[in-house]
Structure formats: structure tokens, C-alpha cells
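Two quick folds needed for the group meeting slides. Do the first one here.
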Amino acid sequence: MSLRLAALPLLLALAGCQTIGGYYDHWFGSSGPAQKPAELQSFTPSAEPRIAWQAAIGSADKFAFAPALNGAYAYAANAAGDIVKLELASGKIEWRTNTGVRLSAGPGTDGRYAVAGTPRGEVVAVDAAGRNAWKAQLSGEILSTPEIDEGVAIVKSGDGRVYGMSALDGKRRWTYQRSLPALMVRSPAGITVMQGGVFSGFPGGKLVALLINNGALAWEATVSSPRGSTELERMTDIVGAPLVDGRAVCAIAYQGRMGCFDALKGAQLWIRDLSGIMPLAADNRYVYATDDRSNVHALDKTSGASIWKQDKLVGRIVTGAAVIGRFIAVGDYQGYVHFLNRADGAFAARIATDGSAIVLPPVATRDAVLVQTRSGGLFSIVVR
């Protein structure tokens, strides 16, 4: 256990549990990293990035937002309650709607509805024309991005519940709930919805697969087991949204391990020691992980063996990765986007945005990555 973690204050009480900010404190109002960040090193670029367009979405305040894609459009949200639809090619704003509530997560979209969450546990939706469609009340703060698939809006609340709701009117279809440990990381613990399954990680190192139509538990796997004698030492939460890649689903736990499992049955494919809280990414050969010191790793998809490690971004609160062409892209707490060669992890290019933190991973489009900053800038960046 790190000394900086042991020294952190408790932030709030939630459903009988206590949560701490840890590595994610900068999402919830702190001024910078918990450890001294590495200085940016000069290198000879092997690629040329440029900002294709940028748009002003609005401040994220102390929360974490990222754009969602559907067809030729991107959707974005801000803490003041706006949901914005933009043309993906140009950044032109199609519409901007204020939901009338303060937002803390989102949006998720299927092109017919865009759904976001609030600090008070509300879920709000706007329709394809930008009109407010419905609002529903859940049990706890919503920090993770909702997802929509097969007409079901999937929302995870901060008290560990996962809800399946009608995307049409917000009526609750099912709820999945599990007991939580005494202490956990306060963070936007994500969900992934794919091929009729809802995949979610939980405190205590558990990874579950639910059926989207009724919320039934398909399987449960252990990514990492709690270790140590104190609650802080035993905290091993899966925070980043699980990665679903073909027949495999992969996850990484804080103060724990990383592993991949069979997406249909939950059988372990491989597992290894690696601590992190950022979402994973993958290409046809490697899985990419950012650890809790901001080292970026490439691991063999079939075995988990280490391929390379980029250790020159330590302490810069680096996001998870997005795969774009020959590169992966990660953001950091000063708004830089770093492009690393997929083959060896070497720096290929770097570009600045607006100087404020990029909190959630870049989102890859066909030929660019989108990043949303804490100050509310949305940037489309191409790299050649």
C-alpha cells in the first residue's frame, strides 16, 4: 500500500460504505497530482498531430465527461446540465439542450436518445431532436457514463447498483445489487454493454456479466482478491469499464491484478499482477493498460506477457488509451495528448489542448481521436 493512499482523507459516506478519492482526487476538485509529475521530455517526432476542430461544451467542474459516438455525430455533456450534439466531421453544433439539472456523468446514446446522470441519482434523457424526454430517480450518485443498447439504458450508481431502464420512457426493468466492502474508491466505475451482455467491475476485485434483457447474473469472476490487514490495504476495486474484445473480457483492479476472461462463460484466460484504475484498450495483438503510476503498458492478448512499458509519464495522471492507426493516444492532467507507437511504446507525437485535465480516455473515430477537457473543450485530433 502506498503512503499517499494511507494519508488520504475520507470523502463521503455512501450506502453504509466509505469511499476515498485516491488517484482520482483531481476529478473531484484537487489542484493536481498526488505525486510529482514527470517533466515532459523532448523527442524526435515520427508523426504530425493537428487539431481538426474544437468546440466549447462547458465545464466539467469536479466530474468526468467524455463524448459518445453514434454514426456521423458526437454527443457531449457538461456539469451545468447541457447535452450537445455535434457533427463528427466538422464539430458543428446541431443542438444544445439544457436538462434543467446538474450533470455528473454521460452522455450515453443510441442515436435516438442521449442519457446522462446527476449527483443526486437522477437519470435524464433527451431525444434525437434535443427535446427533454424523461427523468428517473435512482438510489445514488451517478459518476459512470450510462450506456444504451437494445432499447435498454444501463446505469450504474455509486452505491454499487446496476439498473436496466427503458430507453423510451425511463421505466425500471431490472436492478442488480451486490454487497460492498467497508471502503472503496470514489470514481466513475464504468460499464460495458455488448452482444446482449452488461459487463461491470466492482469493489473487491469482482467482475460480473449480466443479461441485458433481465439483469440476470450470467457469471462472476475474481480479477483480484483483497490482501492485507487493514481496510485500505484490502481495497482492490475494478474502476475502469471492462474491455470486451471478441470472445474475451478484460479488467484491471486497483492494488490488485489484471486479467482476461471468456466473455461467454467467465473462465479465466490469463491473469497477472498489475494495479490500475483506467479503462483498457486493445488492438489485434496487444492489450494496453495505464497503471496507477501512469506507466503505459502493452501486454500480449493471448498470454498477458509484457511487450513494452512507457515510463516517462509517471505522475501525470494519464488516461487509458485509444487505438488510432499506428499509435495509441493517451491524455494527461495538463491537457496534453501523447501518441505512442503501438509497436514499441516510443513517443511519436504530442499536442496540447487547453491546459486543463483530460480525465477520461480519448475516443477513437475512423481517422481521429476526440478528447474532452475539464475546462469544457472538445477537440478532434488527427495524426499522420
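Then this one, please, same format:
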Amino acid sequence: MDFTLPRPAEPGMTLTDVDTPALLLDLDAFDANLDHLDASLETSSIQVRPHSKSHKCPEIALRQMAHGAVGVCCQKVTEAEAMVAGGIPNVLVSNQVVGPRKIERLVALAQHARVSVLVDDAANVAALNAAALDAGTTLDVLIEIDVGAKRCGVEPGKPAAALAELINTSDGLQFRGIHAYQGAAQHVRSPGERRALIERAAQLVRETLTLLSAKGISCDIVTGAGTGTYPLEASSGVYTELQPGSYIFMDADYGRNIDDDGKPIHEFQQSLFILATVMSRTSPERAVVDAGLKALSVDSGLPVVAESGAEYLGASDEHGVLRVHDRSRFKLGDKIRLVPGHCDPTVNLYDWIVGYRGDTVESVWPIVARGALY
């Protein structure tokens, strides 16, 4: 028997009719977040290249580009393939692509869209160059420098400049700029600590740009930043492009960042939720919902119950246990919304995102790049 996984909802349904667990998008909050990013950068000439790893959905990427985004970031070649197939003409694979098969696919994709990729190693530069020459194309590359996250990235300064010189002698490659993302700063709670981390990152970029200029190497792009710090990169004077991703959704962990007054930052609205159903209510103090580890990511903490009166205590594969404070609520069959602890890996658990306004489903968009890990 052939089987096709049914969609959790259809436009026109009310939320009470949506099958659960389901990934929900409050479209009013989503639209407000798009508008807020625009407003926060309206006096700047800096470009925005949102990160599609947050949503993995070409429909959302197209809406970001309609708001002026220059393109999108992707973390994997499959994500880039999904975005290009969905109509996105400009993608940066903001990661290293290593291995013949992956590189072959990347170079092939560059014949259909503007594609760029990061490098931090001379051997990878050589492999990318050979593949581009074999395909008769030119691949844009940016050097990733380590500005403090201690993940990928060549050391700033002389090592980065040496890599730029190598790229400039590679006929199949074009050096476009520097990738300087301080990922470790995004969820640092204190605004002073976040500011210090980005100031240090910007200084390392400046030092690298000075060396490149001394060698006669132009650098068109300095890209990086995330939802937690992008105003700092935007005001640094060195970044030309920003890569926020979670701003369209938000999550419980971002809600724990504070501003200079020690209050939670609420620049963007929570738009992403998991809709769950109360499936068991055998105790007055406990309710069990159908959203557990297979429905939400807990790497950044447990989800938060959006409706007051209950607390999400723990998850097993298919179950989430709530401590109920308001015993008159959370009856068997009731639907509740959960705020995920971390939006990106939660989105990757779903095939569809259900957009709604008020109590009515407006759209059901496929998460085309779900599972795009290679």
C-alpha cells in the first residue's frame, strides 16, 4: 500500500482542528518581526542575508527577500540546493564544504545561482579550485576567520591574508570577503559581555582588513552576526552584511537574554510554537501532552507553556509532562502552545509549518530542507 504522510492542517481550519504535534507560525508576529528588522536597520546601508537554517523553507526565504534581503545563508549543500530550487537566486554556504561529492554538487549548483562558500584551509581551496575548473565555472569564496567562537575559521591576520593570496592565484575561485561570526555571543545573557565579544570580533576583522589592504587585496564583503548581536555588528563600521536567523521565530532561550536594564529583551515577538494536545489527565496536578523529544529540541532547555497555568516538566520520546497549577484547565483533548527552547533544531523535526492568524489556519508551507544535513 502506498502511503503519503498527511498534512497536519489545511487553510481555513481552526487551530482546534489541527493535528498535533504541529509546528505553528503566528503570521502576525512573523510579519512584525520582518518589519522590525527593517526598521532597526533603516538608517544603515548594511545588507541582510538571513540564515535559512532556522526555517529551511523557501516560502519564508522568499518573504525575507521581498523585505530586501540580498540572499540567504545555508549551512549545508542540500539546504542550498533546496533554496535554489525554491527560487532563491543568491546563497552563501556559511560553512566549509569538504569531500569530492559535496564539492561537485556545490559547483554544479553555482551554474544555476550565485553561490559562495567558506574556506579556512589551503587544501580545501585547492579542491574547490580544481572542481570549479573542471566544471568550467568560477566559485565565490569567503575566508572564515575565528573571532572567538573556537569552532571553524583560520586565525585572523597573517594566516587569513596568506589564504587570500592563495585564492587570488586560483583561476577557478574568486575571493569575495571575510566571514566573521561570533556564534558564542548570541546567547550570552549580559549585554555588556555580548558587547565586549563583538567589539573584539570587530577588532580582529579590522586587523585582517588592514593586512589585506597592504597586500593590495580588496575585500568586498564582511559578513556575520546573529539575532542576539546584530545591532552591534551593524554599528561596528566593519560589517557589510548581517546573518540573523532566529529573529523571525524566537525561542525560550533567546527570551533569557537581558538588556542594559536587566530586563528580558523583547525586540522580536515569539511567533513559533508547537501545538500539542492533552492526551492524559489522570492526576489533578499532572497533564501529559503528545509533544516529547520527537516533537521539540531540548538542547537549550525545556519548552515553555505559552498559556499560563502549567509548567513543562520533562519529555520522553512521545510524551511531555506538565505540572498543572490551574486545575480547571488543561482538560483531556485541550490544545496548548509550547514555546520551543531552541527554534532551529525544532523546525528540523517537522515537514510542515502551519501559518495562522487569530484562530484560523492561513497557510501550510513545506519545510523543504528538513533533514538536509549533507
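Slide caption for protein two: The longest strand covers residues 272-283.
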